[in-house]
Amino acid sequence: MKLLGTGSALPKKQVTNDDLSHFLDTNDEWIFPRTGIKSRHIISDENLEDLAAEAARKALADAGTDASELDLIICSNVVNENVTPSLSSLVAHKLGVSCPGYDINCACPGFIFAMDMADSFFCAGKVKKVLIVCAEEPTRMVDWTDRSTCVLFGDGAGAAVFGEGDKLKGTRLSAQPDPDKLYERQVLQPSPYVTKEEKASPLVMRGREVFRFAVSTSSRDIKDILDKTGISPDQVSYYMIHQANLRIIEGIRENLGVSSDKFPTNIRDHGNSSSASCPILLDECNRAGMFKEGDILVFSAFGAGLLSATAVLEW
Ligand code: UT7
Fold it and tell me: How far is residue 16's CA from residue 41's CA, in Å, rounded to a whole number?
């Protein structure tokens, strides 16, 4: 497949580290040096499905594709206000199309898992145009009294439209199942038959362990996929890394021995927007005119599961 267009949409409310210090025992002096985050966009009166549809419309416009041409919609999402129907059904409704869709929950690497899935549909000859939308509201998952997690996240949606081609050079998906490192639990509707004890929990993250997983797995995945595709680290135009922490990105960069100008970042103004992070970064770089035909982009993302994924895409 090949990329045809990108889009993104953000909540209008932008919250700075100083804003957080008004109600939380934290400050910019702690947050910025440890994470690279200065501010994040946070959902207030918006609905996530509206942001998802807005990102999708922008990606379709950028691709010069009419929504009616879509054969499939894949939405990557961890949580939103609708348990059912799926986010892809809601997006299809808002776009006024009737193609089928799937929701996937692969946490932060969701965009790459979705690209891998879309590629299989293209390879099977089942589709000609696919829309991927990654829309996330992690600020509705965190405990807003837990300074070790709530300061890290931001909301938003990123989208990309793909058509037939041979520009996705490779993907690598991997898992190191460990449900206790990063999780949120919900209690479902009461039932007269349930006898087990149930307890809801906001997002819990063992930050240092996830940090180590992220740096080591992403570095390994990138080296591995470059080996397999016969591309050297220097031939890569840009490394599009999940924006979870600037220090994680720096650790990966050092392990690869590549200069920092190949690592675009936007974490400063967005925080960690889970699976929306990579496509929002992609869209911002695209709209800034950074890419030219033939550029090699390497995506890498990691998160709950624990899951990680890498992809090589030629622009
Ligand atoms: O997208 C999914 C993947 N997620 C990630 O990749 C995140 C990975 N982890 C991280 O990015 C880092 O581990 C964090 C940024 C979450 C934490 O950084 P850290 O250097 O590992 O800090 P820490 O959790 O070990 O906390 C150090 C200290 C603690 O105080 P004591 O116990 O040393 O007195 C914390 O209580 O910093 C304190 N602290 C804070 N202080 C002010 C934790 N959060 C805050 C805060 N403001 N927001």
Answer: 9
Q: What is the pLDDT of residues 198-236, one digit of tens each?
A: 999 999 999 999 999 999 999 999 999 999 999 999 899
Query: If DSSP codes are grouped into helix, strand and coil, which group holds residue 182?
Result: strand
Select 171-314's CATH number: 3.30.830.10, 2.60.200.30, 3.90.1150.10, 3.40.47.10.
3.40.47.10
pTM (2 decimals)?
A: 0.97
pLDDT digits (tens, 9 = 90+) for 2-34: 999 999 999 999 999 999 999 999 999 999 999
At residue 88, the 3 state secondary structure works out as helix
286 part of the active site: no
Q: Tell the residue nearest (CA) to atom 11 of ligand 1.
A: 245
**Annotated active-site residue in 17, 77, 245, 272:** 272
CA of 184 to the centre of ligand 1 (A): 18
Asked if 270 is an active-site residue, the reply is no
Which residue's CA is the nearest one to ligand 1's atom 47? 26
